[in-house]
Design brief:
The complex is a heterodimer. Chain A has five helices and one strand, in the order H-H-H-H-H-E. By secondary structure, chain A is mainly α. In chain A, helix 1 runs parallel beside helix 3. In chain B, helix 2 packs antiparallel against helix 3 and helix 6 packs antiparallel against helix 7.
Chain lengths: 152, 266
């Protein structure tokens, strides 16, 4: 595998995603990430498979680029959105101020699991009855490890 | 002299009207673009509408200040009736401007939810797999957090609401407010007319029929609001909401009017 050829193909596919995202309905940064992820994973798998036959420097350079793809594209997307903002003759900074905090890390770094199951800290069994936080099998706590002292 | 004064006042008012139309045209385009760029985030829209409201209030203050500070006294020199006409004209223009601004603001809010609707619909169809066995969970809703037991492996899954589906709960209010706004403006116009009728009759008490009509208009607003909200959310109209709003309205308006109370035997 040739690194230059690998990077050219990668950039071409990333550019396709970028164009698709910009030409379709405007999308959120999360949707952009979701569109890029399959491309990055595909190229990472390809590089991983070829890694045994490649010099370490080439492999590192390839993975180095792959780890930056999403961040670079996020930045480029934000910049593109900024450029697209309409010029305000009568509204002054109202429109610019309206989106000033949208990409603040406080909001963008906020993550939560969309779905979870409480697991017994003792035997690993899942919660099986609503509002019952004792394991049905071993009566262990679902939220408290065996070593922790009871709050009561 | 009075015609020249009137023309100057009209000229000033037309400039205010023109300025508002320019601001609203720019806001419609700019905020529309914000909605498209942030389809699942109501904060930019809320921020932009707050800024727009502030800009509008500045414009209305300019109208009021100009009348009070520079125009009213000159009109009063001609006659009290002329001053009254000038004041009414300013108030009419301000009411029209406010109605136009409010119509745009509620339409933009409603547009946000119309733009969100396909995303919310897609979210409702999106399967949520059980975290233990991966089987699809039969979720009753994606708009609220749900605690559900997997029918295959019996694990209790806590499923968080989907952002688009949960946000779409606000569509009921936004679309209902948009649909009912003309009725709110009808109430406001009616009150201005009633006030002027009283003024013309030396501030005689407002007739009971007029107060009854006010109650009917207010009720029509809340009936429309509740009906559209229910239709959008797919539920029955909230009669308690209508009655609670009407009770509050009655308490602070017609119930304060002694002639209306006497006529109703209260």
């Amino acid at each position: 595998m040739n690194l230059d050829e690998f990077l050219v193909r990668l950039e071409r596919d990333v550019a396709l995603v970028r164009e698709g995202v910009r030409s379709a309905n405007p999308c959120t940064l999360k949707e952009l990430e979701q569109s890029l992820l399959p491309v990055v994973l595909r190229y990472a798998a390809e590089l991983e498979a070829a890694a045994a036959h490649l010099p370490e420097a080439v492999t590192n350079a390839g993975f180095g680029r792959l780890t930056r793809v999403v961040d670079d594209e996020r930045r480029a997307h934000r910049q593109w959105q900024e450029e697209k903002k309409p010029k305000s003759k009568f509204l002054g900074n109202i429109l610019a101020n309206a989106t000033a905090s949208v990409d603040d890390p406080f909001w963008t770094a906020f993550r939560w699991k969309p779905n979870f199951v409480a697991i017994c800290k003792t035997c690993g069994a899942p919660q099986e009855r609503e509002r019952d936080f004792r394991c049905r099998y071993c009566r262990g706590h679902l939220f408290q490890s065996p070593n922790e002292e009871s709050p009561r | 002299m009075s015609q020249a004064l009137w023309d100057r006042w009209e000229g000033f008012l037309s400039k205010i009207v023109e300025r508002q139309r320019e601001i609203l045209a720019e806001a419609e385009e700019g905020i529309g673009a914000l909605i498209a760029a942030h389809p699942e985030d109501p904060v930019p829209l809320g921020n932009a509408l707050s800024g727009l409201r502030f800009r509008m209030e500045e414009l209305y203050k300019k109208l009021d200040d100009t009348w009070e500070g520079q125009v009213s006294a000159k009109f009063a020199e001609v006659s009290n009736a002329f001053e009254e006409r000038g004041r009414d004209r300013g108030e009419d223009v301000k009411q029209t401007l406010t109605a136009e601004y409010e119509a745009l603001a509620v339409r933009l809010s409603a547009d946000f939810y119309r733009n969100l609707a396909p995303r919310a619909a897609a979210a409702r169809e999106k399967p949520a797999p059980c975290m233990m066995c991966g089987a699809p969970l039969p979720l009753p809703t994606r708009s609220e957090a749900v605690s559900i037991t997997c029918p295959y492996c019996s694990a209790v899954n806590q499923v968080m609401p989907d952002r688009a589906a949960s946000l779409y709960l606000g569509a009921g209010h936004a679309l209902a407010e948009e649909a009912a706004l003309p009725l709110r403006h009808a109430v406001q116009r009616f009150r201005v007319e009633a006030h002027r009728r009283r003024r013309a009759s030396n501030w005689s008490p407002e007739p009971v029929d007029s107060l009854d009509h006010w109650v009917q208009l207010e009720r029509a607003y809340w009936e429309k609001y509740a009906a559209v909200k229910a239709q959008v959310l797919g539920v029955a109209p909230d009669r308690d909401l209508i009655e609670s709003r009407m009770r509050q309205f009655m308490e602070y308006t017609v119930m304060q009017d002694q002639s209306w109370r006497r006529a109703k035997g209260i």
